[in-house]
Design a protein that fits this description.
about 80 residues; alpha+beta; 3 helices
Length: about 80
């Protein structure tokens, strides 16, 4: 099973590992999270991003937190 161990950063850097060894998505890295969104502001699908279901849940929660803190827009539409 050692071949499946992950490094300190995962999936192009938007998942990080804390001191306890748990993986999390940092909502403060909005530049990295913006790459996971379509031009309209929707999150790309799990198959396209090559994420597991638990990783997608973590990324989705980080995107929601970044939107709430106004680091990411809810939509890209301007009227």
């Amino acid at each position: 099973m050692s071949q499946f161990n992950r490094s300190e950063t995962n999936r192009d850097g938007f998942l990080r590992q804390d001191t306890r060894g748990q993986w999390y998505a940092d909502y403060k890295c909005h530049e990295e999270l913006r790459r996971l969104l379509t031009p309209n502001g929707k999150m790309y699908g799990r198959k396209r991003l090559n994420l597991t279901a638990s990783e997608q849940r973590k990324v989705a929660q980080a995107i929601k937190r970044a939107r709430h803190m106004a680091l990411l827009p809810f939509t890209s539409a301007t009227f």
